[in-house]
Amino acid sequence: MNLPKLVVNNMTRRRGRFVFTLLGITIGIGAFVTFLALGGSLKQEVMREANALGANLVVTPKGSCAYEQVSILTGEVLPSNITMEEYARVKALPGMTVVPVLAEKSAINNRPVSVSGILPDEMRAFKGWQIAAGSDLAATDEIAVLLGAEAAEQFRLQPGGKVVVRGEALPVKGVLAATGGKDDVTVFLPLATAQRLFGTGSHVSYLAVKVDDVTGIDLAIERIREQVSLGVVSDRQMLASVLAIVGSVNVTLQLIAAVAVLAAAFGIVNTMLTATYERKREIGILQALGATRRTIFTLFLVESGLYGLLGGVCGVGSGLLFTLAVAPHLEQNAFTSFVKGSGGIGLPDPLVIGGAILFSAAVAVLAGLYPAWRASRLSPVEAISYE
């Protein structure tokens, strides 16, 4: 009695049922892997962007919510409610370096891009930027742009080229060396130029603050609050707040994937129960040939597990392919900025992929327990006399 051959023959006997059952588990695991790939790298990306921000404190308009803290890390548009006068008062405080940022959005070749208005000299010193090509911006009201490394590559722009921002053609003066953060996909304008183009007057979106003595963070927060009526959040507080949002997103994605896998499991139960009734005579013949109940149980359980294994492999492959194909076309927003990152989608590691396949096989085995038990409980007389 060749059990592996019996399993394969039984699975492929009704090819339509085989294909649709396999497709069910494939879609379930494919959804699981897709959501895992889209959400799995969020935490690392958030931490990377928080480090790239280079600030111990961020000063925001009073009452700013967690979503706006996410936007600071992703370069999304932020309300411009902080005046240059408030910036000057914070900057005057001893023991800290302060830079203002105006965060806006524009488009190049009909593709959205983050735009930051900055004070060139102060920001270069604050972040330690290096220029890869061309030269840096020289004045706060210079009519020119500085491109992040990836933005320059994506739009095929080099120093001497032109970028249209808010209907005005601006020359590309330089390209930054890669930083590994959102700066790589950002277009930088001198602050006064950005304020004029976007009509924000003398306002900026937030202030990034670097404290000389990191042990005095709490004291620095109190000093800033005494000077201006603005919100102040430390990098650790902001990171915790953003990660809490990311955690909620991940849980939601995983629950959606779990529902898809559960639906596929019920499909396997249905297929195996149907096979139990259709193959009663075959089961009786096997029993007459000496097959024990344990053998019949194992036969059906292996068949069910094989559905899960094949579906898991196909699901992982289709999930990864779907992620790579769709992710670059996701609409840019606070969430997908983290998903995309500055270097693209972070795919799950091999251990996670192997775990997804094993999970698929385990779910299929569990789904096959009841049908296998039903098949093994058939009496030889009942089974062999079935027409």
Over the alpha carbons, how many angstroms does the gyration radius reach? 30 Å
- The coarse silhouette is elongated
Distance between the termini: 23 Å
How many helical elements? Answer: 15
Query: What count of domains describes the coordinates?
Result: 2
Query: How do the SSEs run, as a string of H and E?
Result: HHHEHEHEEHEEHEEEHEEHEHHHHHH
Class per helix and strand makeup: alpha+beta
Beta strand %: 15-25%
For the secondary structure, the number of strands is 12
Low-pLDDT ranges: 339-344
| Mean pLDDT across all amino acids | 79
Which percent range fits the helix content? Answer: 55-70%
Main sheet summary: 10 strands, mixed
Descriptive account of the structure:
This protein has 387 residues and is α+β, with helices and mostly antiparallel strands. The chain has helices at 3-13, 15-40, 42-53, 66-74, 84-91, 120-127, 149-154, 191-198, 217-227, 235-278, 280-288, 293-326, 334-340, 350-376, 380-384; strands at 57-60, 82-83, 96-108, 111-118, 131-134, 145-147, 162-165, 168-176, 186-190, 203-204, 206-211, 231-234. The protein folds into two domains: 3-44 and 243-384, no CATH class; 62-229, no CATH class. Helices cover 58% and strands 17% of the residues. A hairpin with a 2-residue loop joins strand 7 and strand 8 (168-176). The radius of gyration is 30 Å and the shape is elongated. Mean pLDDT is 79; it is low at 339-344.
